């Protein structure tokens, strides 16, 4: 089933002498501070604070290992350890030969939510650009996914998804044109499609079946998502059902693999 980011205890004992240095401000700098926090964690905390306060934004450069070692009066190895830990957490990303940069938040697929809802859950502002919106005379794969006759008229809506100031995904939605008359007149460029279906058509969405695989960005997708050609992507084919089990919408999405996580929970 698919489920769409250290407490240091120190006992009081006989204090051991610690070699200390003083920074340029006169502050004492040791391997651990008075609270027993390791130096690499202090470096991590300083970087996190700059990100949380808005001093650093996604894509901004972070001080190099050498600069961090100099600023915090620690060894190069300690500074490297701090950045490596932040990279594992997805807070920063390293670009070989260029440097270390603040990473854009990753989006986790863990429940059936609209893109707008997913972004809001991550405290991000969602953006969409409608690239195509039309009614097709037929669309065989979409009709089959929606359990419709091959000759059914199908609504096709292609949207570029934005978040954190950059393109995240390219999604194409297919719906039964007969069941949703007037849908293309709704503010699909602004409102959540889930919200429109629930509000205007009284559809109660229930669950989704998804097929996930890896693919490479073709020239058009690469240009649309502002990524190099052949960059790896998550390709997700999703059929969204009503609460009564009726197929409502088929979505074919291409998601940047460096900006999305797929979380899977298994039961025995």
Describe what this molecule looks like in 3D.
With 268 residues, the protein is of the alpha+beta class. The chain has 7 helices and 13 strands. The protein has 2 domains: 23-102, Arc Repressor Mutant, subunit A; 107-262, Chorismate lyase, CATH 3.40.1410.10. The protein has helices at 39-52, 65-72, 76-88, 115-121, 140-145, 193-200, 219-225; strands at 21-22, 28-29, 61-62, 92-95, 99-102, 107-109, 126-136, 154-163, 166-176, 205-216, 232-242, 247-256, 260-262. Strands 7-8-9-12-11-10 form a 6-stranded antiparallel sheet. A 3-stranded antiparallel sheet has the order 3-5-4. A two-stranded antiparallel ribbon has the order 1-2. Helix 1 packs across helix 3 and helix 2 (65-72) crosses helix 3. The longest helix has 14 residues, at 39-52. It starts with 20 loop residues before the first strand and ends in a 6-residue tail after the last strand.
Keywords:
268 residues; alpha+beta; Arc Repressor Mutant, subunit A; Chorismate lyase; 6-stranded antiparallel sheet; 3-stranded antiparallel sheet; 7 helices; 13 strands; elongated; disordered N terminus
């Amino acid at each position: 089933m698919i489920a769409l980011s250290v407490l240091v205890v120190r006992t009081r004992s006989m204090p051991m002498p610690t070699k200390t240095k003083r920074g340029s401000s006169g502050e004492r700098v040791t391997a651990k501070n008075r609270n027993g926090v390791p130096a690499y964690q202090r470096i991590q905390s300083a970087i996190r604070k700059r990100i949380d306060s808005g001093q650093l934004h996604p894509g901004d450069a972070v001080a190099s290992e050498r600069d961090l070692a100099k600023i915090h009066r620690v060894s190069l190895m300690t500074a490297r350890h701090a950045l490596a830990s932040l990279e594992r957490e997805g807070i920063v990303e390293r670009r070989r030969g260029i440097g270390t940069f603040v990473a854009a938040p990753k989006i986790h697929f863990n429940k059936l939510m609209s893109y707008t809802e997913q972004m809001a859950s991550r405290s991000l502002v969602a953006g969409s650009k409608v690239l195509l919106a039309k009614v097709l005379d037929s669309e065989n794969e979409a009709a089959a996914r929606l359990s419709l006759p091959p000759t059914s008229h199908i609504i096709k809506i292609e949207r570029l998804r934005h978040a954190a100031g950059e393109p995240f995904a390219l999604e194409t939605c297919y719906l039964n044109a007969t069941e949703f008359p007037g849908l293309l007149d709704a503010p699909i460029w602004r409102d959540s499609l889930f919200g429109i279906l629930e509000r205007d058509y009284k559809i109660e969405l229930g669950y989704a079946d998804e097929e996930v695989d890896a693919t490479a960005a073709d020239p058009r997708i690469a240009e649309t998502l502002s990524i190099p050609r052949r960059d790896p992507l998550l390709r997700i084919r999703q059929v969204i059902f009503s609460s009564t089990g009726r197929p409502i919408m088929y979505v074919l999405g291409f998601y940047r693999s460096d900006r999305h996580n797929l979380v899977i929970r298994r039961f025995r």
